[in-house]
Amino acid sequence: MIKEAVIGTLCGLVVLTIGILIGHFGIEKKSEAVPSWLNDVAKDVDEKIIQQFLSEVDTVQIQENLRELTKVPHLATSPGDEQTVQFVLNRWQDAQTGLDKAWRQEYKVYLSFPDPNNPNKVTVVNQEDSVLFSVREKEKTYYPEQDDPQVVQPYAAYSPAGHARGKLVYANQGKPSDYERLNQTIDLRGTIAITRYGGEGRGAKAINAAAYGVVGVLVYTDPLDINDGLMSDTNETYPHSWYLPPSGVERGSYTKDFGDLLTPYLAAKEETYRIPPEDISGIPPIPTQPIGFEDARSLICELAGDPAPSEWQGGFDCTYNYGGPGFKPTSPFNSSDVKLDIFNQEKIINSSNVMGVITGSVEPDRYVIYGNHRDSWVHGAIDPSSGTSVMLEITRVLGGMVKQGKWRPRRSIIFGSWGAEEFGLIGSAEYTEEYFTKLSERTVGYINVDIAVFANATLRASAMPSMQSVIFQASRQVNAAGSDSTSVYDNWIRYSNRTSPTHGVIPRVGYLNGAGSDYAAFVHYLGIASIDMSYTYDRSKTNARIYPAYHTAYDTFHYASNFIDPGFVGHQAVGRTAGNILIRLADSLLLPFNCSDYAESLEDYLNTAVTSYQTQLQAEGISMEPLKHAVANFRRAAEQLDKVIQSSDLANETPLKVRKINDQLMLMDRAFLNPLAFPDEYGFRHVIWASSSSGKPTFPGLADAFARAESSGSSSDWQKVHYHLSVVSQAIEGAADMLNEVI
Amino acid sequence: MIKEAVIGTLCGLVVLTIGILIGHFGIEKKSEAVPSWLNDVAKDVDEKIIQQFLSEVDTVQIQENLRELTKVPHLATSPGDEQTVQFVLNRWQDAQTGLDKAWRQEYKVYLSFPDPNNPNKVTVVNQEDSVLFSVREKEKTYYPEQDDPQVVQPYAAYSPAGHARGKLVYANQGKPSDYERLNQTIDLRGTIAITRYGGEGRGAKAINAAAYGVVGVLVYTDPLDINDGLMSDTNETYPHSWYLPPSGVERGSYTKDFGDLLTPYLAAKEETYRIPPEDISGIPPIPTQPIGFEDARSLICELAGDPAPSEWQGGFDCTYNYGGPGFKPTSPFNSSDVKLDIFNQEKIINSSNVMGVITGSVEPDRYVIYGNHRDSWVHGAIDPSSGTSVMLEITRVLGGMVKQGKWRPRRSIIFGSWGAEEFGLIGSAEYTEEYFTKLSERTVGYINVDIAVFANATLRASAMPSMQSVIFQASRQVNAAGSDSTSVYDNWIRYSNRTSPTHGVIPRVGYLNGAGSDYAAFVHYLGIASIDMSYTYDRSKTNARIYPAYHTAYDTFHYASNFIDPGFVGHQAVGRTAGNILIRLADSLLLPFNCSDYAESLEDYLNTAVTSYQTQLQAEGISMEPLKHAVANFRRAAEQLDKVIQSSDLANETPLKVRKINDQLMLMDRAFLNPLAFPDEYGFRHVIWASSSSGKPTFPGLADAFARAESSGSSSDWQKVHYHLSVVSQAIEGAADMLNEVI
């Protein structure tokens, strides 16, 4: 009986176990079925994907992209531009390495070109109207590229057509203070001013001049500012080095505002309302033309008058005089005039953006946007094709992973190849005007890589402070250009650093105050967290204002591959870093934004403002307490949000809680927008990063208003300071509210 | 053996079954644990909660709320106002029926009051300065309420203090066309104009007058406009009926813009920048005073001059003449002047909003806001305390369910008891200025119930067209006031209906074009989908402009409970309907917004615009195609989104997909905002619902620009029409983009 009982029990146990196993594994618990999407919504960035991306970014691919993009000049709307449209479209529509979707998007925009049949002329003419000297109309040819008939000859875009003649004066950088100084001893009415690039916006040099009665403006690049003083093309400048040859001329847009000039705040479509061209502000009111330094030397070194002050002196082997006005009695140009004959023509013409998309798997309604312009002045190897070559390499690698089914980002990625940037960031600005609300509500961040390599010494990045940490994280994972042991981060910190109260010594990330490239509309108009990055110089080795072939006919594949980034290792480092950031923005479960770093920047601004302004403001009865209160609130809110994040097990929380925090991080910057803060500046709505003429590293509206009030002393100007203090305080309080507990 | 085998098998089966049960139910499948939040995020509105809410909304509770709120006059910032602050706070902080949190929020705002020590005076004085007639300074007392020392005596808020004297003219409604007509035969310089309420904004009557040199303005309520002609308080008017007694005076704010007048676009805090009061626009430039119709009759019936046209005639038993200017030779007032002595004082003073919150369980970062102002002119039983009584009843029922743990909304609910609405929607406007970005990014909808019952005949609702369907759904579930068989919906459709191309005959939901109550900042400044609702008259029974005791000392508990809504059944119907909508907005898995209904409204607007403008626009070379294209795109996008919704099994989708659709629905209206479209109108940024002086039911900016261009014929005015066409087309395209597939 015992045996039978044991056997029975054993059998019973076996049957019971079988039953348990069947019950547990064999029968699905219908009522508690786990939804298939559960793992997807909780998925974080995959470091293996990052590593695969980094390993696939290839210097030879980038080099071949660049070779293709720079075959012909591709000035906006030219046949060469159309070739690049097709090239980018084909790449993004490629079945193996393309994106989900790519298309062309056109705007009808207002551009300015020289007349190919009537070249602009700058001459010295004597009283009998004989031409004593002519500025060259075309840069010197060293390679066949310079002879391409599609090369647009030097001009100042948006300078009016017209004829101006007068005695020459030298006006330094064409700042208001420069003309004011000249005007103390010279009657500027009816003169022609020659100015050098730098220190002031292109168009402003002419606008400032016209206020004193100057009738025409020349602009040249001084060898001291661009060439570390070197001037000879027999052995010093390009094609022997990266330096600007004597005949090289920086072209450029002479506009103050960005976006299509005829359709402010409206996307420039066929039937869109256009303001009358005579209502455009911020462009030269008088004929203006850029010239090379060889010709500038021929004019400046002949000038009569008192010697200009030492800070006006440049790289020529002569003393820069003010001008009599006009030339020295001993000069062959004695009593001659300088004459400008400008034949620029404005056109309303279609310009194309090329857009491409990878649709997000989990949050398709969140966008990470990566962009660069496609149009150049001439061949534009560095500006912008270095950036486009990098962008196409990033899309090749990511597109390949998508097409192979290896990867799909959590959020959607939009790539923009903008048109007509050189004329004033037009393609990107029109895009943001057309899709304002959609972009504002859905865009996580914008990454701009325009000139990818100014030089190949070190990374340079400007960004919203909240993005500093993701830039650091990505740059630590990438090898510095040409190194296989030092990271981009470790290399960068040697060239440019600062001491952060929180982090100690770290690389210096700049601010996006200006409108230097296509990030402008995203930062200033939309308030979207943005990054602009590139590789750049060793500042201990050159004082060049910018890479010397900038906007000239020498910015070619030959120049880029020989003098800027041989081996394309700088391109590669930028592509890897920017792509790494892009993947992190697109894939991270929690957006990689650090608002405490934003607080640090606001505290910096506040300290500068208090130190610089508080005593005088108190005397005017204006309290800075609301601003201090706002910055302190922002800091507290940022720390509070950090705590919420740290104490959350995000992968196991409801996806709506993660989304809540991500929305706080994403939308915080929108609170800094105020469409009424800078009514005279097109598109500048971000009260923290607007450009400021004061030069002080503090709240720009406050700084400019203070400078004006201090100078005028008028009570209405002090009221404007008070107004800007209220505007910026309310904006910061509003941003803090976005970070605070949502209810 | 067989028996044993059977028993063994049976035992085995029993054991197996036990095993299966243990295995299935007793052991959790660790690897596929279902997160606890899964049901919560998929939960939809619970109809049982709606039914419970409806059953608990109680007429007696509303009546007692109203009795308490109307004990004393509660003019903004007065001691009576503070009593209501405390009352609302106590209710919202109640342990059994309160909200999660409630607090007071103050703004320092610019208000205008009469001087209690120097009453405003309106007199008729003869050439020897003898006073022949004095307008009464105080309304007649029928009940002790009218004698309360806290009753503010009739005045025109923001009329300047000052003394004006001149010959009287009758200027109808004080419209520009009225003064123009008068000015054809009378030199208006130095005159005093008497005008009747209606047809034009309060302050505009004085602004329009001043343009013709008029030096003072009187405003009265004509018995024809308010009392269906009745005038006697011995048997016709209050206290015998709802009609206005002869001495009753409508107080009011004589401002054009809403929000604190000194701090446009800035929250009015202690240190906020304030514009100089002399820079305020849109308020009377000349002394202005409202008077009762008894006194107005004494003046108007004595006027000399030609008889005014028939459409200027009112309810008095005399012919309304223009005025000589001045009185008839046969009048005792012959050759006398009318004199205004106004002693109004402006103050910058703290005004309180009371805020209360129920935190959402699943999406706390989505807000449904329900609000009404708290301040009145006198006792304000109807305006606004009928609305506040209803709001407090809604919070009592919902708060009770929350405190009992029976319910918590999916989204957060914010209740706002706004201050200083009567002076220009100030409390709500300052709130939206302070929290602009947070509210803009997170608010699903705003429900405004100010005057809950103008009368108790039928529901009246104005809203964004997308909210029509939820209003209908809710109103079908509620019994009409005083009925237990007819729904609010079925009752409503009898009083006011229209034929929709989609839905056939339906109740007419109005548009929120104006700034009549606290919805203004939410609609016009923030672009948030909003509803304003109340019960109102049977228009077949009265032509009253508004309920007759509006803004007088007769708007008391006695008046409300005897003549507007005996039994409080109208209040109850409104509370049930508004609360039902509130719960649906807060709890629905999918937001109950119908964008196809919005498309129908845009198509209506488009049809009107094409019919009215196209021929002339074509003649001016302006194409309407972009507008047609935009509206067609919006319709297509709305239908596409409807399809996505219909084909989705939302309860089983990822919560982020539901959120994506809800964000599309919530944020679509933001695309209609353009801060530059109406630069002269404070806070008007919504290009579809802005107010328009044209009166045409179409796009307001286009309509006004067209009217101006048609009248002036100037080419720059036609350019402005083209501009507005582009603005509105781009806005509608942007809204369509929000509804389109997100990438």
What does this structure look like?
Chains A, B: Keywords: Glycoprotein, Hydrolase, Membrane, Metal-binding, Metalloprotease, Protease, Transmembrane, Transmembrane helix, Zinc. Chains A, B: Belongs to the peptidase M28 family. M28B subfamily. Chains A, B: InterPro entries: PA_dom_sf, PA_domain, Peptidase_M28, Peptidase_M28B, TFR-like_dimer_dom, TFR-like_dimer_dom_sf. Chains A, B: GO terms for molecular function: carboxypeptidase activity; metal ion binding; metallopeptidase activity. The structure is a homodimer. Chain A is of the alpha/beta class and about 750 residues long. Chain A has 4 domains: about 30 residues; about 300 residues, Aminopeptidase (3-Layer(aba) Sandwich), CATH 3.40.630.10; about 230 residues, Glucose Oxidase, domain 1 (3-Layer(bba) Sandwich); about 140 residues, Transcription Elongation Factor S-II, Chain A, CATH 1.20.930.40. Helix content of chain A is about 40%, strand content about 15%. Chain A is built from 22 helices and 19 strands. Chain A has a 7-stranded mixed β-sheet, with helices on both faces. In chain A, helix 6 links the parallel strand 6 and strand 7. In chain A, helix 4 packs across helix 10. The radius of gyration of chain A is 30 Å and the shape is globular. The model of chain A has no long low-confidence stretch (mean pLDDT about 95). Chains A and B meet through helix 1, helix 2, strand 13, helix 12 and helix 20 of A and helix 1, helix 2, strand 13, helix 12 and helix 20 of B.
